[in-house]
Design a protein that fits this description.
CATH architecture: Orthogonal Bundle
Number of domains: 1
Number of strands: 4
Strand order of the largest sheet: 1-2
Largest sheet: 2 strands, antiparallel
Number of helices: 3
Structural class: alpha+beta
Order of helices and strands: EEEEHHH
CATH class: Mainly Alpha
CATH topology: Ribbon-helix-helix fold
Mean pLDDT: 76
Helix content: 25-40%
Radius of gyration: 16 Å
Distance between the termini: 34 Å
Length: 117
């Protein structure tokens, strides 16, 4: 699929430290989660970071999304993925002094989703 438009574009009339707010395209992507196909609407930045998190953990993307899906309580899957990526990125960057707990860890069991090698 060829891209004819840039992934992000500046919004007129708004400013920030980076010279303008960025608006990312939201793309609908299909993925198999728990043996059924579903679609997720995510911005490229969240999709790419989610793929990187799965890669760093050594798990398939569909496995990671399946765990996020199982842990969410009230929001839709796309929103749950955005929150997961945000919290993981924040924790990894050290911006949160308390280090956000991994949402894949249940009841302090101390295990995270990783593929055994």
């Amino acid at each position: 699929m060829s891209k004819t438009a840039p992934d992000c574009e500046k919004t007129r009339g708004q400013s920030s430290a980076h010279g303008g707010y960025l608006r990312s395209r939201v793309l609908k992507r299909s993925i198999v989660v728990g043996r059924h196909r579903t679609s997720i609407s995510l911005e490229d930045v969240f999709w790419n970071e989610l793929r990187e998190i799965a890669h760093r953990r050594g798990v398939h993307l569909s496995e990671l999304v399946g765990h996020i899906d199982g842990e969410r309580q009230h929001c839709n899957l796309s929103s749950a993925i955005r929150m997961f990526v945000f919290e993981q990125t924040r924790a990894e960057s050290g911006q949160d002094s308390k280090r956000a707990p991994d949402p894949l860890v249940r009841d302090g069991a101390g295990t995270t989703l990783t593929r055994s090698r």
